[in-house]
Amino acid sequence: MLESIQITKKFVGKTAVDGISMRLEQGHIYALLGPNGSGKTTWMKMVSGLIKPTSGEIRYNGNLIGIGTRKEIAYMSTEPYFYNWMTVENVGKYYQDFFDDFSMDRYNLMIQNMDLTGKLKVKSLSSGMMAKLKVAVTMARDAKIYLLDEPLNGIDLLARDAVMNMILQAASNDKTLIISSHLVEELETVVDKAIFIKESHLAGVYDVEALRVYDNISLADKYREVFSNVSMGGVR
Amino acid sequence: MQYDSKLPIYLQVINAIKMDIINERIKCGQKLPSNRELAVTYTINPNTAARVYQELEREGVCFTRRGMGTFVTEDETIIKDIRTQMADEAIVEFLKKINELGISVEEAVNMIRQREE
Asked: Is residue A89 within 8 angstroms of chain B, CB to CB?
């Protein structure tokens, strides 16, 4: 179980995350939703231990986030983080050096399934191929929590399908997946929980299928309800 | 598969599977994909996939063999029943629309006959 307890991050002149408290259970795929600049990335970076909260704490199975939890939590950032000289193969080796739970076999299998070849230079990859590579190298780790920051951003339909496929292959009862996106519709069928972050605050955690069963609304409808004052029109 | 994102996903997948069974794209007694395979094939959450099988099992459409997976029932009366049930749902849906248009059932039946001719 991942606990975010009154977590706050202040940067000079701006509070990026403001008192977010929630519990995330294993066996679920969470969507982390909110407009750009709402604090999603900052929250993810705190969970992965890359930046420290100003106040509050994050615990995984009772332990504070730190060196000890790093091997259980895999994080994929939005910005590309490979060196230009690297090939797809180098990226795998680079990860293998860093993470004990990295499986080269799984990585190679995913790379193969996605028509990427080991000799390809990272700098020559299209944005769709780069997106697939980033997800593949992250999901090739055998972590307990996977944080994927905007894995669907700026990629075509087929690359999105491939990314979703990898995500669903990796999901299991003992893992927690957290996917941030502003492409709500893309996540509609894949996530079972949705976390809304609005202006640095938690604006609710919802069971996505329950929204459909009990309220007859989609995740996208809920998103509109939470984030905008625009009515849904007379469609319903 | 195209989903209506306002309707429960598990029900939409259940209906798709039932339709495949009725049309014999999936045969009686055939083994169904694992939870994970189902999730990947339909691009759905693994918990939704599990719920699909739970419901289908509850309705007697499929059953689990310990350690072997989920199979379609071999009882053809159950398949006939789900066919009738799905036809019934389609009729209810149809009648609702016809009613909204202010057309009586007799009128609708005549319209269907004319179309068939």
From this structure: no
Which residues of chain A are within 8 Å of residue B14 when distances are taken between CB atoms?
A: none
pLDDT above 90: residue A135 = yes
pLDDT tens digit sequence for A179-201: 999 889 999 999 999 999 999 99
Instruction: Pick the closest to residue A218 from A187, A178, A181, A197 (CA basis).
Output: A187
Cα–Cα distance measured from residue A168 to residue A113, given in angstroms and rounded to the nearest whole number: 14
> What ipTM was reported for this prediction?
0.88
3-state helix, strand, coil in chain B (%, to 5): 60, 10, 30
pLDDT 10s digits, B22-61: 999 999 999 999 999 999 999 999 999 999 999 999 999 9
Ordered structural domains, chain A, with CATH: 2-41+52-227 (3.40.50.300)
Query: What domains, with CATH codes, occur in chain B?
Result: 9-116 (1.10.10.10)
pLDDT confidence of residue A235 = 46
Q: What's the number of CA atoms in the CB half-sphere (13 Å) around residue B99?
A: 6
Give the N- to C-terminal CA distance of chain B in Å, as an integer. Answer: 34
Does residue A171 have a pLDDT over 90?
A: yes
Name the residue facing A191 among B39, B42, B45 (closest C-beta): B45
Q: How far apart are the first and last CA of chain A?
A: 38
The alpha-carbon gap from B3 to the nearest alpha carbon of chain A, in Å, equals 8
